[in-house]
Design brief:
80 residues, 3 helices, globular
C-alpha cells in the first residue's frame, strides 16, 4: 500500500499549534486562552481524518511536525 501524502490542512493546524506554543512560551497573550487554544489544536491534529481507519506510516506524525517547522522557521537556520 502506497503512503498517502500528508494533507495541507493537517500541516497548517500543526503550524497554528506551534505558533500558539511559542506565544505561550514567550508570555504573549492570555495564559488561559493560549492553553485552551493548544488543547483545541491538539485535538484537531489527533482527530484529523488522515489518521482514521488505518495505521499511519512510520514517522508520519514526526513528518507533520517537520513540515510545519519548515513553514515557521526563519530562513538560513536563524532561530530566535
Amino acid at each position: 500500500m502506497r503512503n498517502q501524502p500528508i494533507p495541507d490542512d493537517l500541516v497548517r493546524t500543526q503550524v497554528e499549534w506551534m505558533c500558539a506554543y511559542q506565544a505561550l512560551a514567550h508570555g504573549e497573550g492570555s495564559y488561559a486562552a493560549l492553553r485552551r487554544r493548544l488543547v483545541t489544536l491538539s485535538a484537531r491534529v489527533d482527530a484529523h481524518p488522515y489518521w482514521e481507519g488505518r495505521t499511519p506510516p512510520a514517522g508520519a506524525r514526526a513528518q507533520v511536525r517537520r513540515l510545519a517547522r519548515e513553514r515557521v522557521s526563519p530562513p538560513d537556520g536563524f532561530r530566535s
